[in-house]
Structure formats: structure tokens, C-alpha cells
Amino acid sequence: MRIGISSYCLDRCMEEGKMTLFEVIDWAAKYGAELVELVPFAFTLGDEKTRTIDKEFVKKVAQHAKDAGVALANYSVLADFCKEGEALRNEIDRIKFHVDIASEVGVPKMRHDVTAFRRPLAQNTLTDFERWMPVLVDAATEISEYAKEKGVYTLIENHGFFANGCDRVEQILNRVNTGNYGLLLDTGNIICVDEDPVSAAVTLAKRARMVHLKDFYIRHRDPGDTTQFDCGGHWFRSRAGKYLRGAILAQGDIDIYAIMKALKDADYQGDVAIEFEGLEDPEYATGVSLANARRIYQEV
Questions:
Q1: Contact call for residues 235 and 244 (beta carbons, < 8 A)
Q2: DSSP states of 256-288
Q3: Which of 57, 36, 37, 38 is nearest to 46 (CA)?
Q4: 155 contacts 109 by C-beta, under 8 angstroms
Q5: In what order do the strands lie in the sheet with 215-219?
Q6: Are 237 and 228 in contact (CB under 8 A)?
Q7: Which helix H or strand E contains 5, and what residues bound it?
Q8: Mean pLDDT (10-residue bins), the chain, 300 residues
Q9: What is the spatial distance between Cα 170 and Cα 177, in angstroms, rounded to a whole number?
Q10: CA 194 to chain centre
């Protein structure tokens, strides 16, 4: 099992101009990360409007990672297929463009959402899910078939408040029958829909093709500075109203030891990427999280 980081951990450093993507890769190599997941929030590898890949930049990124001895393991983008007509067609084509980018970079896997993680809570009912599920499945199937031709394996992540939770995620997984579609298990996101992270890890570890290791602080009374959806460091709320904030791995309230044991017991051999989104300094927090992940995996 390889353990590394998501570039998302160090987004704040890139957004503030303290680091470039190349320096994020160098940082990962310095701290012993075996892989980096590319999440194009604080950087771009292509222009969505013109559907043009920045092939020169992509080539440099791929070569830089190779020279640093760090695998580029996954490429993750947001998506929302709860749309109709031309809007849905445009969104599917946009994600196919990102498949092209993933192929150009040479990453073996790509995670894309199937619905917006900030979807209003009033529209997150089981009735809503059953209504939209055929649309989500058809879109994911089309993209997965397209990606198969490009040598890219596509993934769904339990993310947000709608396409999250063990049952909903497994329903989608079971219906996308391409042989090229799997699960990116996020160990923290499951708490957004008030399911137990350890139970979810036990349930879904056998289906996982990649893992995000994430921790949260969890409170049952308002700690202040709370919004509904801001997961960029501030407190936000679960579907049932718990208060959540990103934490350094193993310093929050999720039992990372039990989750790592669940992965080991399931003989999970895939990639693991730290995903930190708390208030602490990103470099410090990501470094501690990475060290904790390695240590805990050996201890369990």
C-alpha cells in the first residue's frame, strides 16, 4: 500500500503564492510521500471553455513527479449531473475533457463527483436520490466507457450530502457496469451524512480502489464560526446537524486506528492519500498527518 498526499492539502500555500505545483511535488518527495493526487483547484492543466489541454505544462508536471520519485496516482474533479437537456450534455462533455487531461498526464485513475456537494439539504431526500439515480448512473457509465478507451479508471467518492452514505454509493457502484468504475473511499466524508466512519470503512474497504484519509473534529453544540457548507477550515454542519471541522489526521474525533485496521483486515493494497482541510498551517498539518498515517498503519 502506497501512502501519499492530495495536492488539495496544500491548496492554501498555492493560492497564497507560497508554493507552485512543482514545489508541492517536491514537498511531497521531501516528506516521504509515495504519491500525489492532483486536484486542480489552485492550478489548472487545461482550459474548460476552449477544451484545450496545456500539454507543455502537463508534460513538465509529469516529468517533475517522475524525477522526484513521486507517483501521480489520481486526478480529482468536481461534477454535477443533476441536470437536464443541454446542461447535462455540457457537464458530461466537460468531465470527458478532464478524462483527456488525466490521460495526457498519465495518471491511472480519475475521481469525478456525480452531484454537487453543496446541493441544498432540502433536495437530499431519498426520493430525490431515487429520482436522479438513473441520470447519475447513465452519466457515470458514459464517462467510464470513454475513460476506458483512454486507459483511465474512473471513481466515485462518497462526497457531500447527496451521493454519500454506504447504501447510496453502493447503489451507484452496482449499476455502473463498465468494469472500469470503482470507489474512492473517503474516511472522513461519511460523517457528513452522519454514518459511523469505522463501520463505513469496514463495509466499503473491499470495494475501495483508492482511499482518502481524512479526520474531523465533531461537536454537537455550536462552536461558533459555523456555516452550512464551508469545509475549507471553518465549522460546517452534517446532514443531521453535527458541527464538523477538518483536523490533522489522528488529532480529531474519528478513530483513525480502527479505520486503518479495517483497511488492513480487508487486505487493501491500493493507494492512500492524506486529505487535510483544517485551520492549521497546511505544511505542518500535512506533514504530521502523513507521519501519523504511516505510524498508525504499522501499529494496527
A1: yes
A2: HHHHHHHHHHTT--SEEEE---BSS-HHHHHHH
A3: 57
A4: yes
A5: 215-219, 243-247, 236-237
A6: yes
A7: strand 2-6
A8: 97 97 98 98 96 97 98 98 97 98 98 92 92 98 98 96 95 97 96 96 96 96 80 81 95 97 95 95 98 96
A9: 12
A10: 18
Q: By the 8 A CB rule, do 188 and 160 touch?
A: no
| DSSP H or E segment with residue 112 | strand 109-112
Grid cell listed for 194: 452522519
Residue carrying the nine cell digits 468531465: 95
In contact, 195 and 169? CB cutoff 8 Å: no
Rounded distance, CA 131 to CA 230, Å? 27
DSSP annotation of 164: -
d(CA 24, CA 244): 27
Distance, C-alpha 31 to centroid of its chain:
21
> Using one digit for the tens of pLDDT, what is the confidence trace for 161-220?
999 999 999 999 999 999 999 999 999 999 999 999 999 999 999 999 999 999 999 999
**CA–CA separation, 129 and 267 (whole Å):** 32
Only one residue has cell 452550512, namely 228
Closest CA to 3 of 197, 189, 264, 253: 264
Q: Which residues share a beta bridge with 274? A: 5, 213
Q: Is 36 helix (H, G, I), strand (E, B) or coil?
A: strand
How far CA 191 is from CA of 122, 235, 240, 287, in Å, comes to 18, 13, 10, 24
What Cα–Cα distance (Å) separates residue 252 from each residue in 132, 160, 187, 231?
Answer: 34, 19, 12, 15
Look at the block and give the residue holding cell 478507451: 149
